[in-house]
Amino acid sequence: MSAQQTADRVGRSDALQNLARVGLVAYGVVHLLIAWLSLQLAWGGGGEEASQSGALQTLSEEPFGKPLLWVLGLGLIALALWQAAEIVRHVGGLSGSGDAKKKAVVAVVKCLAKVVVYGFLAFTALRFATGSGSSSSDQQQQTTSGVFGLPGGRFLVGVAALVVIGVGVYQMVKGAKKSFMEEIDTSPASAGQVRVIERLGQVGYLAKGAAFVVVGGLLAYAAITFDPEKSTGLDGAMRTILQAPFGQWLLSLVAVGIAAFGVFCFFRARYPQRT
Known about the structure:
By secondary structure, the protein is mostly helical.
């Protein structure tokens, strides 16, 4: 049996898909917590970071929080493995030509990005589950500082900033065009459910994209000023939005959008990905 056939078999296994659904629910819960922390930041309550690490820290402090973090972490690992299997399935298309090759390249890049995101979030969740989690803003500043010490480090940070901004713009376009619906099999859903999924996805992707653009902008500012402290991640992006004119309302809108994406993830867990 070839690697591609093995990956296809693994990716379609009921056990992995069910675990991946747990991971999608976990991903949704993290976004709902980020939205809640962002609202608290907007209106003067709470002290946790409005970021993934802040959300996981908040969860770790709740009763049964650490066992839940283990469940979230394992579910996210399953999500990462699911996307890794998808990469192997699409690798065969890279040897083709024309549109087929372009589609395979896009699919591989998308799945690889998801593996990195889900894997990193799973690692972070498990660190908080074991009591060794830390601030994502501090981690990003330390990473940026380390990259600055490399030959051409300032250029590398600038390139990373452009990539993050590009991801944000891509997500906003994806939300505006509703192209995310092409990835979901909603044939079992009612017309009303499909409309809800579309609206949640649109609002969610637009809000997430806007947040990514601000994160990338802060990273670019760090590269320009050669100051790693300017690279403050998602929490810094939320605080930057808060400082803008009508910042409380703008941050509240972004928080509502991120919450919408969280609920969208629950629907994604309900309806499988198209293959």
